[in-house]
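[stage:ingest] chain + small molecule (zinc ion)
[stage:ingest] validated
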Amino acid sequence: MLRLNDYECPKCGFKDEYLLHEHEVKLCPEDGEKMKRLPPVFRINMGPVPLAGYYDDNLQSFVRSNTHRKELMERQGVTEKGATPKKGQAWI
Ligand SMILES: [Zn+2]
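[stage:predict] done
[stage:export] tokens:
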């Protein structure tokens, strides 16, 4: 899956956005160092999920419940602002 992410070079601090596959490695154009992928910044609607579910543009999936949204977000490596992501923990 292609995603647009921010990458930062740990050596010289060069930062840019690249559209890459999730596990692709980006080398710094300045010094060839392996760049570090920064956590994605998503603008996600954090309100309660409507009973019938809704289509979430950011997650690009139909969301059926809070738990389902949590699963989708975990699968996509997205965490909520202010929430502490813990494996195996879900709000219902
Ligand atoms: Zn660099």
